[in-house]
Amino acid sequence: PQETEENLRSPICCIMGHVDTGKTKLLDCIRGTNVQEGEAGGITQRIGATYFPADNIRERTKELKADAKLKVPGLLVVDTPGHESFTNLRSRGSGLCDIAILVVDIMHGLEPQTIESLNLLKMRNTEFIVALNKVDRLYGWKVCRNSPIQKAMKQQSKDVKNEFSMRLTQLYYNNREMGETFSIVPTSAISGEGIPDLLLLLVHWTQNNVLEVKVVEGHGTTIDVVLVNGVLHEGDQIVVCGMQGPIVTTIRALLTQHPMKELRVKGTYLHHKQIKAAQGIKIAAQGLEHAIAGTGLYVVGADDELEDIKEASMED
Ligand code: GTP
Ligand code: MG
Ligand code: NA
C-alpha cells in the first residue's frame, strides 16, 4: 500500500434501484464479468459485495483526464436486489453504505422501488449519484463503447438528443420533491458509455470524505463488514488480511445499527451474541488497526489449520 493509503478504510458504495434497472449489469460492466446472466431468472436475490481497487478505478477514468488521486485503497461496492420483496436487504444495504448509486432505467423513469430507495437514502442522509441507465435503448443510439458520456452524446443524432432531453425532463416533472440537487449520469451497462463519469464522481466524493479505520468509543478499533454468507459469533477466532501480514484475532463484540438507524452515528449500536448473513456489521477486536478493507474475513473452525487460513487470507 502507498503511504497515502495508510490507515484509511475503503468507502462502501451501495447500488440500489427498481428491479431490472441494470444494477448488476453495471457492476458486470465495470468488473468485466457476467454475473447477471447467471442469476436465476435474471433477478438478484441477495446482497453481493465487490472490491474495486484504486488502480482499476484510475484506469477506467483516465480518458476523462482526471487526475484521479485516490486517497483510499479502493471502493467496496454492494449490490442489492431491486425486487419488491427484498425491502429488508435494501434497507440493510443502505444502512451500511457511505454513498449510493441509485439506478434508474431511462425508458421507465421513476418506479416504485426507485422511490422506496430514495426514501431510505434520505432517511439516513446518505449522498447518492443517479445512474440514468440504458441510454443505448434510445432509438437510434450510436454506440461509443466505454466512452465518457459527453463524448458519446456529441456523436448522437438530433433525434436521439431530443429523446434524451425529453425523458430527462419527464424525470424531473415526476419528481415532486424539488429543491434537492444530485448528480445524474447517463450510462449504459451494455456498451459502457458514462461508466468513466460514474466512477469519477465516486472518486470525487471520496476526496472529500476520506474515511478512517474507526475507533468507536468504548470498543477500540472496529471494522465494518458485510456478512454475505454464514454466521459469526462473539468469541470467534478470525483472520483478516493486514498490511504487515495476516491478523489473527478474536471477535470481542459484534455490533449492528438499530434497524432503520444510521450506522455511522455513534452510540447507537446493538450487541449480538451471533449474527446470520446477510447483514452489515461492525466488528470490534484487537489488532484491526492495520486491516486492509475489502479483503476477505475468515473464521477459524475447530478442525481448521490456522496456517492454511492465514495463507488464504493473504491471497485476497
Ligand atoms: P435486480 O437485481 O433483479 O433488481 O435487477 P438489476 O437492476 O440488477 O438489473 P439487471 O442487471 O439484472 O438487468 C436487467 C436486464 O436489463 C437484463 O436483461 C440486462 O441485460 C438489461 N440491461 C441492464 N442494463 C442495460 C443497459 O444499459 N442497456 C440495455 N439495453 N439493457 C440493459
Ligand atoms: Mg441485480
Ligand atoms: Na434483474
TrEMBL record:
Residues 8-210 form the Tr-type G domain. It is found in: Cytoplasm. Belongs to the TRAFAC class translation factor GTPase superfamily. Classic translation factor GTPase family. IF-2 subfamily. This is Eukaryotic translation initiation factor 5B. It comes from Vitis rotundifolia. The chain holds residues 512 to 827 of 1084 of the full protein.
